[in-house]
Every structure is written in C-alpha cells, then in structure tokens.
Amino acid sequence: GHDPVNDQYKILCTIVIASDLLRSLKSEHWVFVLEAGGSWKKVVTHENYHHPHAPFTLGRSISSGSVIRYMAWRDNYNCEVVCFDVRSEEITTILVPRTFGLYVSIPVTQMKADIIEYGGKIAIFEHSHLKDGGVPEIWVFEKEWSRNKILVVQPCQRHLVHDVELLFKGTTQDGRVILAPLKLSCRFYILFYDLQSNDLRKVEIQGIPEFWFDKECCYIDLRSMDESESESVIYLET
C-alpha cells in the first residue's frame, strides 16, 4: 500500500501458526518499507485489536486512501475484515456476523467469499452456493452489516456456473466480478459478473497449449491488472 503523507510504499506480511481447523491460532504482522536499505518492522497491534487471524488463502485486498482491507479467518466459524492503515501502521478489524450467508452452518473455511467495493462501500461477495443453486449474495458494511442483495443467475445462463468450481479473482474497474474455473477444462475461460444487471459474460482465453488439458489434475492461476498498475513499477537499489 501507499502512504501518501510520507510518499512511501509498504508491504504487510502476516505470519500465522494454526492447528487443524483453526482451533488454535497465533499471528503477528510485519511491515517492510519499499526503499533502499529498508528492513522489516513488527507491527504493534491497536488497542481495539484483540484476536489473531489467518488471511484468506486465495483472498484479495482493496485499498481506499491509505487503508488496505482484506478478509481473514478468526477461527473455524468466524471471519472478519482486517483494516491496515499504511500511514499509521495500525490494524483494526470488523467482525462478520455468524448469521452471514444463507447457509449459516457452513464453516468459514469452506465459504467462498471475498471483499469488494459495492456502491463505494465495503462489501462481501459470497458465492458458496453459486454452482449448485445459482445464488450469490452481497453484504454491505456501513455502520453495521446488512444483506444488500441476493442474486439469482438467469436461467439462460445457469449452465455457465452449474456444477463448476469457480474462484473469485477480483473485480474490473467498472465493478464487475471476475470468476475463473478452479481446474482447466477443454477451453479455459473467465466469467464477468455484472452485479447491477445480474448478467454473466463468458470470455475464452486463447493460446493455452492443448497438452495442458490432457493432464489429470491441472490448476491455473489468474491475476488481473489494470492499466495504472502496469505502469506503476518501482525499482529499488540494493
């Protein structure tokens, strides 16, 4: 993230030690300033920050001003939004209520949810039951969490998500959610989900060698980058 006051770029690293199913969890946070001769410094947690956490394994972060936000597990049945102020290096959290989601009994480690911006606000896109029910949810945080929208995929587009294991891969600049299949099929593609119009668009990715599709178990990763990010390369002297 970027500290606009001191014009510094910083990296946040979270180290987690956890037992099976997160029954026991310890975490600590370190910050590295991207500058010549920079070094790691341990973050002193905020007085309102009480619980260790494990960031979502395949999660992403969003930035607003000098604050970076991401989702994390507090334990097997509780998750939260973690807020890191790049300038002050303070960490605070927003607990996601256990009533979150249509199916409140599923462990958070099995949920498919991630943080997005929706209408200029912090929100969570939850799609645990997209492949079997075609029903994702959007929860928005203002002073508290509220279920803003329950979407139902249009019948003519259900085949795009039915029985397909999809991963959340971020959002476009105009707010469309990007979903990608976990495994390679005969053709690799991504889905753009317009949350306002409830419309799915499928885009095939060309040029992947055919022999990859013959593998019994093949996974592929996808990273999105907007034009401003591609031009923001920082060179450091070592």
From TrEMBL:
Organism whose genome encodes this protein: Noccaea caerulescens (Alpine penny-cress)
Supply the InterPro entries for this chain. Answer: F-box-assoc_dom_typ3 (IPR013187), F-box-assoc_interact_dom (IPR017451)
Please give the superkingdom of this protein's source: Eukaryota
Give a single Pfam family match: FBA_3
Under the heading PANTHER family, the entry gives: (RAPE) HYPOTHETICAL PROTEIN, BNAA05G37150D PROTEIN-RELATED
Any transmembrane segments, and where? none
This chain belongs to the protein called F-box/LRR-repeat protein
Domain F-box associated beta-propeller type: from-to ranges = 1-226
